[in-house]
Amino acid sequence: MASRREFLITAGSAGAFLTAGTLLAQAQNPVPGAAIGPAEKTAGPGQPPFTLPPLPYAVSALEPHIDAKTMELHHDKHHKTYVDKLNAAIAKQPSLASTPLAQLLAGLEKLPEDVRSEIRTNGGGHANHTMFWEIMAPNAGGTPKGAVAEAITQAFGSFDAFKKRFNEMGEKHVGSGWVFVVMDRSGRALEIATRPNQDTPLLEGGRVLFGNDLWEHAYYLKYNNRREDYLSSWWNVLNWDAINRRYEALKAGSAVI
């Protein structure tokens, strides 16, 4: 992964902005009861098993909260690197090519040792970023609605209390990583958790509702070292409709990426 200095001097190409894939899609030999998102596909002959999903909006669409250059580099450079390295790891073990990403991550300890670390880092990075693009949108933000709003109030007392706790955990996390909202093992409540680097709750078979990227490459060009300001502003781009769709899929027992 590029250092911050490399990130700041790297120029990216223009970001693609096509319509995003559906939240759930069929996979070859899926885990029973599981579903996958645009992070995965059934590869055709000679094609890599994983592809970079296009942004569902223009790179400038989330301004002023996330600037266009950050989106361009974050998607076209950082996320693409995770996809490329994940495919390179799978190429070492071709028998894994048809295995859904959620299954690869949840079964990490059963994978061949020569690709285990690469799949953990790059598969986690691919899953985390695919979720990240999906749960943001232009002209979004505001307060949650629907089933997610009810679940947040039930678990945290109010949306304001939930936001405060989420931001505090994101601010206190040391180094690179992510802060996630996950569904607990009972499927009845929401919890907030952080993970280092590109780790994901999917590694433990967890269910990710949404999350925010705490790596400096996600905010440094605009916010510099002010992670607190980035976390506060990020709520203005949350796509609660997409989050509600993820919530319903998780409640149904699907392994959403």
Category from helices, strands and their pairing:
mainly alpha
Q: Supply Rg.
A: 17 Å
Low-confidence stretches: 1-39
Q: What spatial order of strands do you see in the largest sheet? A: 2-1-3
Strand content: 5-15%
Bulk shape: globular
Report the CATH C-level class of the largest domain. Mainly Alpha
H and E order: HHHHHHEEEHHH
The averaged pLDDT comes out at: 86
Helical content band? 40-55%
Instruction: Write the CATH fold name of the largest domain.
Output: Helix Hairpins
Structural features, described:
The chain is mainly α and 257 residues long. It has 2 domains: 14-134, Helix Hairpins (Orthogonal Bundle); 146-251, Iron/manganese superoxide dismutase, C-terminal domain (minor pseudopilin epsh fold, 3-Layer(bab) Sandwich). The chain has 9 helices and 3 strands; from the N terminus they run H-H-H-H-H-H-E-E-E-H-H-H. The longest helix has 25 residues, at 68-92. It is globular. The two termini are 22 Å apart.
Q: What's the topology here?
A:
Blueprint: H1 4-9, H2 68-92, H3 101-106, H4 113-134, H5 146-156, H6 159-172, E1 177-183, E2 190-196, E3 207-213, H7 220-223, H8 227-234, H9 240-251
Antiparallel strand pairs: 1-2, 1-3
Give a short overview.
By secondary structure, this protein is mainly α.
Give short descriptive properties of this protein.
single chain; 257 residues; mainly alpha; Helix Hairpins; minor pseudopilin epsh fold; 2 domains; 3-stranded antiparallel beta sheet; 9 helices; 3 strands; globular; disordered N terminus
